[in-house]
Design brief:
Length: 485
């Protein structure tokens, strides 16, 4: 049968999505399964599962957002289908689960070692792909055990032993660190160095994470040397897998081929970590207090700095999506705009300095590839949500429900049809770390019952699972999420 892309009829906003009917995550036989339209919308032509997942059927089913079960007769959704359905505000067959799909939905390596033991799984080398936060790569057997629907693009790289070196976690657990970001020992601390040899991160004895220790623009900035300054900050210099790539065509080939191989071997939704930080980039280079003072006290200089940063990000975005755009489903940007008590800056200041620049980057990402745009944004950011949505944001994580203004029912009621809440599934501040497994289960079921109806929700805990979280609570959390109605 012939299938007409909905963009040709004026009802589809992203014709390129039609080509995903040939995507490995959506079998061709299923993608070409047509279903007659239902009353009362009699004029809608025959649609396919691909149309429904990626564009929706306007007016169909009296506006109901539950998935049409006949499209999936005899089978469940694939993980990719499940995530895409939720992102398009359709009710999937169950709540999509994210665990380690990005650098704020993972697990500390210390906790991961305990989790594997509690699950009775075979011992494996603990690989720490994010040395700063000391996050572990979550192995395939754990992803399968918890029915995880996502995977991070970096899992297609650094697969060989040659990329890793032995190290020991602060609690004495053996692990492996990326060869290009291996900590060095100094008296009283472990340190991380930039390529120039400068100490840019420090973990004192007794601590379990690294902290930034150098800010290149703290005393004097130089807007002509922003790229060089970025290489002297812990968050920019120490890359997660794929890690440092050779310059030019050789590095491009490694990135593109690794992304394609991952796409070919998984039906999970793939998240590509891009960054594109604006407020945070100023804080990385100037330090938080100095950059906030720059915004308030010298707006002309702040605009000039941000203009330079955006141009750098856009150039990197062109290359990134040219190479991996056909292999990923979600592109992840980052900017922590909030604090525990609300936004770091007023809506007026966000509108002046950041919204136009976010909108420009997010719009360009969608022009370059068939991707959804997600922002990692910690803190109480409710007052900024209308502006983020207006700028073109599709999803936000980690939905920090313990912060001022981030009450779950209010968020879902006011914004649930406009943005996907990728997180908020379990409070890590108190419940996950200090509660009993029964308390965790009750809390998760309640959160899912609030956020999941009508789609627009992907389950993850609020940020990473920290080192002191009992493994029994982690198991209770994911089992409750998968089993929740």
């Amino acid at each position: 049968m012939a299938i007409v892309p909905r963009g040709e009829t004026g009802t589809r906003s992203s014709p390129g999505r039609f080509q995903r009917a040939r995507d490995p995550g959506i079998p061709l036989a299923v993608a070409e399964t047509a279903v007659p339209s239902r009353p009362p919308n009699g004029g809608i032509p025959r649609r396919t599962v691909q149309d429904w997942l990626l564009g929706g059927w306007p007016g169909c089913y009296d506006g109901a957002s539950h998935f049409p079960k006949e499209l999936f007769a005899g089978r469940t959704m694939t993980p990719r289908e499940r995530v895409l359905a939720a992102l398009n505000h359709h009710q999937p067959d169950r709540v999509p689960i994210d665990f380690s799909g990005h650098r704020s939905s993972g697990i500390a390596a210390i906790a991961y070692a305990r989790l594997r033991k509690a699950l009775g799984l075979p011992e494996r080398p603990i690989r720490v792909y994010d040395p700063i936060q000391q996050l572990a790569i979550v192995d395939e057997d754990v992803l399968d055990r918890f029915h995880v629907d996502t995977i991070e693009l970096g899992r297609g790289f650094a697969l060989e032993d040659e990329h890793w070196v032995d190290w020991t976690l602060p609690d004495g657990t053996p692990c492996r660190m990326p060869r290009w970001a291996s900590p060095e020992r100094e008296p009283g601390a472990w340190v991380l160095r930039s390529k120039s040899g400068r100490v840019i991160g420090r973990m004192p004895d007794g601590a379990i994470y690294f902290e930034q220790s150098h800010w290149p623009f703290l005393e004097q900035d130089d807007l002509d040397r922003i790229p060089e300054a970025m290489d002297e900050t812990i968050w920019c210099a120490l890359r997660s897998p794929p890690g440092p790539l050779p310059p030019g065509p050789e590095g491009d080939k490694i990135l593109a081929e690794g992304a394609r191989r991952l796409r070919d071997r998984t039906d999970r939704a793939i998240l590509g970590l891009f960054g594109g930080n604006l407020l945070e980039m100023g804080q990385f280079l100037y330090r938080i207090d100095r950059f906030l003072m720059l915004l308030a006290g010298d707006p002309k200089r702040a605009h000039a700095f941000l203009d330079r940063v955006v141009e750098l990000h856009l150039a990197n975005l062109e290359r990134f999506l040219r190479l991996v755009g056909q292999s990923i489903d979600i592109i992840v940007f980052g900017d922590d705009l909030g604090s525990q008590r609300g936004p770091q800056l007023s809506p007026a200041m966000y509108r002046e300095f950041f919204q136009p620049r976010h909108a420009r980057m997010w719009r360009r990402a969608k022009e370059l590839a068939d991707v959804k745009v997600m922002l990692h944004c910690c803190g109480g950011v409710r007052p900024l949500l209308p502006l983020l949505i207006e700028a073109g944001l599709d999803a936000i994580n980690p939905v920090q429900i313990s912060c001022t203004g981030m009450e779950s029912r209010g968020l879902k009621a006011d914004f649930g049809r406009q943005i996907t809440f990728w997180g908020g599934g379990c409070d890590t501040h108190v419940i996950l770390s200090r509660g009993t497994p029964d308390e965790v289960r009750r809390h998760v079921r309640e959160q899912v019952s609030i956020f999941a109806p009508g789609g627009g929700f992907v389950f993850q805990q609020v940020h990473n699972i920290l080192a002191d979280v009992p493994p029994e609570n982690v198991i209770a959390m994911f089992d409750a999420a998968v089993g929740a109605e």
